[in-house]
Amino acid sequence: MISALDATFPLLAACCVMLLVNLASMVLAGSRLRRSMPRSAFPAGAPVSVIRPVCGLERFSEETLESGFRLTYRDYELIFCVADAGDPVLPLVRRLIARHPQVTARVIVGEERVSDNPKLNNCVRGWDAAAHDWIVLADSNVLMPADYLQTLQAAWRPETGLVCATPIGARPDNFWALVECAFLNTLQARWQYAADAIGIGFAQGKSMLWHRPFLDAQGGIRALAAEIAEDAAATKIVRAAGRRVNLVAVPFPQPLGRRSFGEIWSRQLRWARLRRVTFPLFFAPEIVSGMLVPCLAVALLAGTVDAALGLGLMVAFAYAAELVLARRAGWLRSPALVAAFIVRDLLIPFVWGLAWMRSDVVWRGNAMAIETKPARIRAA
């Protein structure tokens, strides 16, 4: 008679493979983070336009938006794009511009609707009005360090089509914000950097450094409307042009403050649905991106103490490796993160499953139907 342990041996072996894959991704990500970059191909001192689409007021809005006025860069301009003249963020933007007259800055009110993506619609007029050929699109909740532009530029290579930075969760004020850090940092950023290390980097819309002549040759900023997520469209456009998406050596923080379970759930479900539609082959394996649930399932099937202990050690080893990666990268690290890892991994199968069931998302009150359209790409 075949024992329960013998019957589950293939599953036990699969868990071992999962552990090795997770460890390999952490090693790859760790090798990319905070290393000295090769010599940049970015033209030294080239003027830069920084476009920041803004919508609504959040706890850290003043801090993150004002950080853009304190960059140690000789020649740059700030363009704030506000879709609605009645947006409560508009008075704050105008106060910041008046507070920092030494920085060339202006605000553009009104959007051009080119897609169902409100952020992209909000950026189009800023892109058209930018004075310089090097353009950064930066979300309003990115906290920019003084060397923000230099960090982006340092990742530019001769074969680069786009430089991006993943968001890194920082300054959580409650447990659910800690769970968001567990998603953003040692899971999502880790896989982003692992992919970048093997030459298949994916764009991330938080911070994007473009060379306008390159994107204009592919159809311009409006070509990013080919996908509901502008970063997915950017990835496909850059790859189709034979270029690469590169990530910065040190990603930038996003202060979180307090988060509720509902905020975490809706945000992760929205991102999962976007990934499922835009990159389904890469999204499909995400069901096992957390070690906990697969190992729990195998332990229950095995039904032996030895198997349960062995699988528990696998999970513990994976979590310890995540903490080591966070330490190496300089990200948030705390013993409480282990509890956040557990909750995150329990949520992953539910987020993954629901992402396959529907293809609509809601972002800032905007209902968005997800569909993939042929990319509008021109030959370079």
Salient structural properties:
two-stranded parallel ribbon; 48% helix; 14 helices; 11 strands; alpha/beta; disordered C terminus; globular; seven-stranded mixed sheet; 380 residues; Spore Coat Polysaccharide Biosynthesis Protein SpsA, Chain A
Would you spell out the secondary-structure blueprint of this structure?
Blueprint: H1 4-7, H2 9-32, E1 48-54, H3 61-67, E2 76-82, H4 89-99, E3 104-109, H5 118-129, E4 134-138, H6 148-154, E5 160-165, E6 167-172, H7 175-197, E7 207-211, H8 212-217, H9 230-240, E8 244-247, E9 252-257, H10 261-278, H11 280-283, H12 292-302, H13 305-329, H14 337-355, E10 360-363, E11 366-369
Parallel strand pairs: 1-2, 1-4, 2-3, 5-8, 6-9
Antiparallel strand pairs: 4-7, 5-7, 10-11
Helix pairs in contact: 2-7, 2-12, 2-13, 3-4, 7-14, 10-14, 12-13
